[in-house]
Here is the input.
Amino acid sequence: MEKRQKNKSTEKEGRELPFPVFIRLNGKRVLIVGAGKVAQRRVCALLPFGVHITVVAPEVSEILQRYEKEGKIEIKRKRFTEQELGEQPFAVLAATDEKELNRNIALLCRKRGIFVNNASDASMCDFYFPALAKGEGIVAGVCGDGNDHRKVAQTAEKIRRCLEREDESNVFKTQRF
Here is the structure.
């Protein structure tokens, strides 16, 4: 497994900031293992981006069942097995309430070169989920160093309010003509 090299500027501060990357996910397959609150939030965050989502979990929430009925996601009601990786998803989200299972999923994904997010261990994540702020034709993601989730949420909310004001301003501009 690759060891991450620390940047001297982040090493001094004792934190490692992720680099923001925006990826076109439309049509890409994402596997989400687990169906609790974290998994549900990830599904809701990904749906507007045209992702083909498969959830693997023995039991799922009513909201996820509704998405399945609406044809928005696929659900496999079972425990995760390595066979789930056979179709080589673009990314896997290990979001169960079992830390060891999440760890094993992350290790399997890394062996196969699949991007993985381990919801129970940030050190085993190839990518993070930002707090999203969307406006008309704009999407912004806010991510921190993992130390202050409240600060990230507050910053994203400020951006959302700015985007809402911008959208309202554009409506007023177009209504003048």
